[in-house]
Amino acid sequence: MSNNTEPSPSLVTLEMWTSPITSDSLSIIRAEVTSADPSNGSALAAAIDDTVNTLNTLRSPNARVVIDVRARRASIATAEQDSILEALRGLIQGYVAESGGQIGPVNLVVTTADQTEDRDLTWTYLADPDGAFARGATFDLREE
Length: 144
Known about the structure:
Helix content: 25-40%
Radius of gyration: 15 Å
Structural class: alpha/beta
Number of strands: 5
């Protein structure tokens, strides 16, 4: 049995992103879906681990977090992309449910690259006090 110490490739690359909206209350994590095979269990595990670790760095009752995913239109999405989005959706819902109210809102926003206005309006809403009730939600704004 070999002892391979190289980390597994992740299906998702995460980075903190500066929002174009003026709000100190909203942290946006840009998630880029890579082309790795989602049936590769170690790559999916690495993506989940990376996402949870990133969320934990922002863990606070007052922090609002959005995972921002730019994806293909729903009508031309690949099975690979859909499986990764579903994994992120379930991860965020579970993370929020298991937190017991110890964290602020965490949500997933899925758009295509050209949906800047829709994305900005959604971020503005989520940064607003009225948007604080949304927790563990997925805002999939892609058009068919």
